[in-house]
Amino acid sequence: MRSTHAAGRVRTDLADRAPTVPLRPLPSTPLHILVVDHEVTARADVAKALTRQGHTVLEADSGRGAIDLCGSCDLMILNLDLPDIDGLRLCRIIGTDRGIPVIASAERRCEMDCVLALQAGADDYIDRNCGSRELVARIDALMRRMAAAGLVKPAEIIDKGPLRIDIGARRVTVRGRYVELTRKQFDLLALLALNHGEVVARGEIMHKVWDDSWSRRTVDTHVSSLRAKLGASTRIVSVRGVGFRLVTSDEVRAVADHVPELSESRTGTC
After folding, report:
1. Which residue of 19, 55, 242, 270 has the lowest C-beta tally within 10 Å?
2. What is the pTM of this model?
3. Does the keyword Nucleotide-binding feature in the UniProt annotation (predicted)?
4. Tens-place pLDDT, residues 4-44
5. What is the Cα–Cα distance from 222 to 213, expressed in whole angstroms?
6. Domain spans of the chain?
7. Distance between alpha carbon 151 and the CA centroid of its chain, in Å?
8. How far is CA 129 from CA 24, 31, 34, 35, in A?
9. Topology of domain 157-263, CATH
10. What is the rounded distance in angstroms from the CA atom of residue 187 to the CA atom of residue 203?
């Protein structure tokens, strides 16, 4: 009897110390995820599961559609069986050339397909019919690996007057109002905000946002779009011949009399 009682006490103590495991996975950091699949139902099922986790989902039914939308995504889930472009070739274009994380999928898990996808630039490979929990867990694991490798910026909140930028969630609000931005628009705004009040040279913008693949028109177009989306409460000021700086409307009013370029129209360019 003593032995049984002692054993029971030990088991109870271990149970008390055991961590409580939630029945549902904790929400992951919200991402812009591009789901590429030619089948409407399969694509919709994945999009629904990811949306429930708080992610913003973009959808494409072809390789060309994926190329058009990939600039606005943080990660791509790619079905290798596409009607217009070979899936492995698309892995090389998106994953290797453009540096966007790719999770490849196929109708069934085949070792050779997995090896070829990983060699082509995919970061992970899954069975197309895997459950939503496994998919979300793989996304979280991939982003953790990228963060550990220094390929993802750590979570950071930037508050600049009415402007709030959540770096980790890639979320921007102005006076509490959500502002939807493309991937490059967000990267440009984050760069300017991290150097708030200071001029960021065009060369630095080209290098850090476009990886030196750029044109003057590309930068001006993105700056113009950001100005329109942010409104008058936040202003991207052109500093002629140098670059751009980010200031709030209060700062503009406070120093406009002393800094001539702050008095320029916010639609002006360098």
Report:
1. 19
2. 0.53
3. no
4. 444 343 333 333 333 333 333 333 467 889 999 999 999 99
5. 14
6. 32-148, 157-263
7. 12
8. 20, 22, 17, 14
9. Arc Repressor Mutant, subunit A (1.10.10)
10. 15
- Of the candidates 194, 198, 191, the one whose C-alpha atom is nearest the C-alpha of residue 222 is 191
Q: Which residue in this structure is represented by tokens 């200031």? A: 247
35 strand-pairing partners: 59, 77
Question: What are 114's two structure tokens?
Answer: 């997995």
> Which residues lie across from 103 on neighbouring strands?
77, 124
The whole-number pLDDT of residue 37 equals 94
pLDDT of 233: 61
d(CA 188, CA 165): 12
CATH number corresponding to 32-148: 3.40.50.2300
Residue in the structure block whose two tokens are 């779009």: 225
Q: Helix 202-210 and helix 183-194: axis angle, to 10°?
A: 130
